[in-house]
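Hey, I'm writing a tutorial for new members on how sequence and structure tokens pair up, and I'd like a real worked example in the thread rather than a made-up one. If someone can provide the structure for the chain below, I'll link this post from the tutorial.
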Amino acid sequence: MSKIIEQERYTCAIGAMQSVVAIPKALPILHSGPGCGMMVRGFFERSTGYAGGSTAPCTNFSEQEVVFGGIDKLHLNIENSYKVLESDLQVVFTGCTAGIVGDDVESLAEEFRAIGKPLVTVETTGFKCNNFVAHSEVVNAIIDQYVQLFIKNNPIRSEKNTVNLFASIPYQDPFWKENLRTYKYLLENLGFKVHILFGPESSGVTEWQQIPRANFNILVSPWYGQEIVEHLEAVYGQPFFKFPHLPIGANETEEFLHGVLDIAKHLEIAIDYDNATGFINHESAAYYEEVDNLATFLLEFRYGLPNHVHIIHDAGYVVGLSKFLLHETGIVPKEQFIVDNTPEKFQQAIEEDLKTTSSKKSIPLTFEPDAGKVQDIIRGLSHEGRGLIIGSGWDKQLAKEKKYDFISASVPSPYRLVLTTGYVGFHGGLRVMEDIFNSVLSTYK
């Protein structure tokens, strides 16, 4: 049987260069063939940031480097990158060819560190892992090779109400910027100082240098990023709170925030818990006011609304959206598909998390990195009523074939421009509702 995967919804390990692109004034340097960076840029779209896409320096590994090695070319490339691009942090990514040849990139990095140039190296050969896994390896490499340099000025766990947040993977999650902004808004209003680390809400490398100061870490993810918080627990003794799916809408956002407050109480953190609870109640009341307004539309609209949904996404979105749609819109999750190539050791926990969505009906769940197979499965399904597909731009034609409504919510997404949209939190839940019902209204005649 063929081992070829059709419509892969992630990239190889070097796609984690986007995690560096998402750090203000950080620079990925590719020790790879010229096609690697172009592949990443083409897959994620609108993802160049300060020094991504075709701006990212690359050694353009050729036949000559395959034979003689490319370490001298990389040395020159790094030297010139300091001259041309104003950056605060440089991270070298090794592609497949460099990994096969065996260039000693770490020794080269030591040369630059010796002259005060903080250079981080990460092995991201494409055959090693995908970018979900490599994201954690990049973050941990920056912690070990860069953050550690500033440990004397950043005492471990010295700021009781400070947390490090690890949630959306930059660019892999098309809504990552607004999602991270929302997490920061929610947590700050509980009384925490939040290191968000990526995107426009981050202060860049100075914020990374202060990672050790945090009292504990927050992970919002079913599996990706787990290695980061476990590593921080090992090196800095920072405990972590894990929320296993995206908190979308009132129910899950309240559970997430109260979970954070519970661990804060356990760690005896001095924040105003009455004020924090009041904030949650206020945000929830504002959310339900909008839901009440929506109820009028739903009662009067007779055109036909979707009554079931298939989601093709990563594990965090599949579970988070399933819970939200069933409990807060009445749309029933039917067969669901996780396409992030979830490691087997995490699959049972994700299945158990999804089972808690409903005590009456089980939701069929398939882990399948081949989204082409997923589309074929959905083509063969038959359910009564109007359906909805939430997936990537590649699923638009499938929805048309099935005469289903469609929302593009994962990469690649050539049919949707995302600037300030987010799906996390109270406002995120309302935005999901807007997207669903606007999709329905777009076909109304």
